[in-house]
Amino acid sequence: MLQAIAGVWFVWRFVRARAPVPASRPAVTILKPLHGDEAGLEAALASNFAIAYPDFQIVFGVQKPDDAALAVVAGLRARFPRVDIAVVVDATFHGKNRKIGNLINMLPEAKHDILVISDADVHVAPDYLDHVVAALHAPGVGLATTLYTGLATSDSVAGRLAATSISHGFIPGVLTSRAMGNQDCLGATMALRRETLAALGGLPALADHIADDYLLGAKVRALGLDVAVAHTIPATSVTETTLADVWRHEMRWARTIRALVPVQFGLSLLQFEMAWALLAFCLNPDAESAVMFGLVWAAAALCGIAIDALLRGRQATRVPVLLLPLRDLLSFAITVASYTSNRVDWRGETLHAAALPQRAG
Asked: Pick from 38, 148, 149, 199: most CB atoms within 10 A?
C-alpha cells in the first residue's frame, strides 16, 4: 500500500514539473513500423499526422504488400497532404525480431538525423515532438523515451483490465524505479540521434532480441549517455477483448522481464496487495481479515482515482474500481505462470525469452 501511495506521489511530481523548452527545433524523422489494421490504428496514426512541428517526416513500414495498414495510411495521406511521409514495403528478414527487421528496411528512407521510433498504436499530442526533442537535447542525454497510458478500444472487461495495468501500474512503477536510479527505455517511443545509433552498432545489434527497447537503453547507457523521459504522456491502444488475449499479451511481457531481471521480477509478487489480502481472508475468513481486504481495496481505488485526476486532459481509460481485485489476481497468476516456460508468442511467431542477454555487452 505504501508503494502504491509513493507511486501516486511520483506521478504528481512528474505531472507538476515544469516542461523543458527545446533550444531549437531540428528536423525529425518518425519511424512507424506497422503490422495489420488493429482497433484504434487510424486514430493513433492520425494524431501523428496532426503533430504541430515545423519539419518532420513519417516513414511507415510493412513487410507484406497486402498489409491492411497500408489502406489506413493511404486514407490519412489524402487527409493530410502536407505531411512528408514515405511508405516502405519490404519483406527482407534480418533476425528474430520482426519489428527491428522492419525498421532496418525503413531506415534508408529517413531524411533526418533525429530519429523517433514510435509504435503504431501510440496516440500523441500536437506538442509531442517538442517535448521529445527537448528531452533529447538535455546535456548528457543519448536517448529520450516517454511514459504512456492505456486506452481501451472497447468497453470490455478485458480491455479495462489491460488498460489499468498500464495507466495505474506501469506509470507509477516506472517513475518509482527512476527515483531509485534506473533508466529504462520504454518501447512506445525511442528517440535518438543517428550518430548515437551508429555508435551502439545500429539496428542490426537489436535484431535477434525480443526486448529491443531494454537492450537499446542499455547500449546507450554503455556509451556513457543518459536515458531521459520526455515531459509528455501519449496513449497506447489496448485492443484486448477477452481475458485470453490479456493473458497472452501480458505473458509475453512477463517472460521477457523475467529473463532480464529474474530476481527483481520474482520479488514483484509482493506488490500485488489485494491478492495477498484475499489470500489472508481465504486462509482465515474472520472480520479482521475482511476489514483488511476492504482497506487494501479502498487504498488501491483511491490511488487509481488520484492518478486519473493527475492524468486529466490526457487519453486514458479510467480505473475500474470494482475490477481491481481481479486485476491483482490476474497479475499474480501471470507472474507465477511465467516461470513455467520460456516460450513467447509474438504476432504469430514463437520465440524464447531465455535467449535474451542479461546486459548490453
From this structure: 148
Cα–Cα distance measured from residue 280 to residue 295, given in angstroms and rounded to the nearest whole number = 13
* Domain boundary residue, one of 179, 210, 243: 243
Q: Which amino acid is at 48?
A: N
Give a yes or no: residue 359 inside a domain: no
What is the mean predicted confidence (pLDDT) over 132-154?
A: 97
Give how far Cα 187 sits from Cα of 8, 105, 120, 215, 291, Å: 23, 19, 11, 10, 40
Q: 227 and 258: one domain?
A: no
Query: Residue 355: inside a domain, yes or no?
Result: no
CATH code for the domain in which residue 181 is found: 3.90.550.10
Task: Look up cell 479502498; give the residue.
Answer: 298
Q: Which three cell numbers stand for residue 296?
A: 487494501
On the question of pLDDT at 359 being above 50, the answer is no
pLDDT digits (tens, 9 = 90+) for 298-341: 999 999 999 999 999 899 999 999 999 999 999 999 999 998 87
The per-residue pLDDT for range 83-101, each reduced to its tens digit, is 999 999 999 988 888 899 9
Q: Which of 99, 126, 299, 79 is nearest to 190 (CA)?
A: 99
- Do residues 79 and 10 share a domain? yes
Determine the structural domain holding residue 122 and report its residue range.
Answer: 2-243
The last residue of a domain, from among 216, 243, 270: 243
User: What are residue 347's phi and psi, to 5 degrees?
Assistant: 50, 45
pLDDT of residue 21: 85
Element (H, E) at 191: strand 189-193
The whole-model pTM stands at: 0.91
Residue 142: is its pLDDT beyond 70? yes
- Burial class, 144, CB count within 10 angstroms (exposed 0-12 / middle 13-18 / buried 19+): buried
- To the nearest 10 degrees (0 to 180), the angle between helices 324-337 and 287-310 is 100
Q: What is the pLDDT of residues 30-55, one digit of tens each?
A: 999 999 999 999 999 999 999 999 99
Across the beta sheet with 56-62, the strand order is 84-89, 56-62, 28-33, 114-118, 189-193, 141-145, 226-229
